[in-house]
Amino acid sequence: MSEHGKTPVTVLGLGAMGTALVEALLAAGHPVTAWNRTASRAEGVAAKGATVASTVTEALAANEIVIACLLDYDSVHEVLDPAAAGLAGRQLINLTNGTPGQAREMGAWAEELGADYLDGGIMAVPPMIGTPAAFIFYSGSGGVLGRARMALDTFGGVNYLGADPGLAPLYDLALLSGMYGNFIGVIQAYTLVGSAGVKASEFAPLLRGWMEAMNGFLDRSAEQIDSGDYTNDVVSNIAMQAAAFPNLAKAAAEQGVSAELLAPLQSLMDRRVAAGHGAEDLVGVIEILKK
Ligand code: NDP
Question: Which of 77, 87, 236, 278 could form a Cys-Cys staple with 113, CB 3.0–4.6 A?
Answer without folding.
Answer: 87
